[in-house]
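Why does this matter for the project? Reviewers at the last site visit asked to see concrete outputs rather than summary tables. In response, this paragraph embeds two records directly. Each consists of the residue sequence and, immediately after it, the corresponding structure tokens. Nothing has been edited or filtered.
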Amino acid sequence: MKLTIVGSSAFKELMLEYQKKLVALGHEAIVHPDYQAFVNGEKQDIWDMVTHGEHAKAKRENNYIMWYHDAIKNSDGILVLNFDKKGIKNYIGGNTLMEIAFAYVLGKKIFLINPIPDSVSYVDEIKAMVDEHSVLSDNLGKIQ
């Protein structure tokens, strides 16, 4: 299965780790190439924008939202990396919420690595799009 990996930019190292895990299981795993660059210490001007209050500008100038839409459109589904962040268990931020919505309206499979966060104001929207059977509980072998 071809899966686009989505989640907070803070999980960039985990995106690459899960990409390797998916490939080892026989899947094709898509990660935005800038995450590999960020982990390698490249494109630090963009990473600085992401981490120092200019994230919207970085998204606009690098066309990240459209890139994810197109990647999801050309995938079988998405794998959402929703780990703890900002004191929120299983964090899903605004951008990831949009990526889940892209997958949902495009009829793609949606897999969450951890359960749906219950402490975000848009929990109902996530629950409307994500089937509880799509929660992997960090078991990638459940992907079908």
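We now turn to the second protein, recorded in exactly the same manner.
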Amino acid sequence: MAATLNNHIQDYIAHLAIERNLSPRTLESYARDLRQFGHWAEMLHLGAAAIERRHIRDYLGRRRETGLSPRSAARALSSIRGFFRFLVATEAVAADPTADLRSPSLWQTVPHTLGGAEIEALLAAPDTSTTLGLRDRAMFETLYATGLRVSELVGLTTDRVRLDPGFVRVVGKGRKERLVPIGLAAIEWIERYNEGGRALLDRDRRPELFLNHRGGKLTRQGFWKILRRHARQAGIKTHLSPHVLRHSFATHLVENGADLRAVQMMLGHSSLTTTEIYTHVARERLRNLYDEKHPRA
């Protein structure tokens, strides 16, 4: 009688305990991940030899949808990968369906990014006939044009904004400085804010470019509240944070062919590895589009 998937899982856990001498806690972690996977495969009436790469992707994707973190999903894949390597080594299956399967930690490491229509709706949400609306439009345009962190945005001082050559000088993590170009649309709205809004707020000659309604320094929490309010007005249903705009900035650049090292410099990443996630995001969006639209996908 052929061994069931659960029999194979028990054999693998015994192998880990005896041959690899893993700790009880580690063994329980492997066993828990594989029991959950085995239960799912059993419901689909899949034996070990019938499981394909698409099944594992579907399983981990569904787990992510139910709230499993990227780190936990990556650990689950690691358990499943080790299990199938064991099955191949013991000739229980002919091929490893986890071969070249990318870690789920990359599937949604980057928060949701906004599409072009959502960006336009958000930028248009503030009432620019008011002082605060003018400020908010200028802030949103600046954030999307530069990909600044929210702490960098609220800490941006007027002497670090050079509208004529079109760049901002940013003090980022570790007090490191970088130059970030800024586009014409953002320049226009900053100029309008400077001319028609900031002077009314700046009662104490503050150095910061963007001020709160009392004329003081805008906090990160204050910006979050402003962003959430305008997101509701724009009809954006998904969770929106300042980092979503930063990631939208980077993803849209990569999707349109920007050099990855240039994006790295603009974002202030110390390692190119951190920036490379945007190539994965762009590829994943392209893959999802293909799967959704192609009749033979």
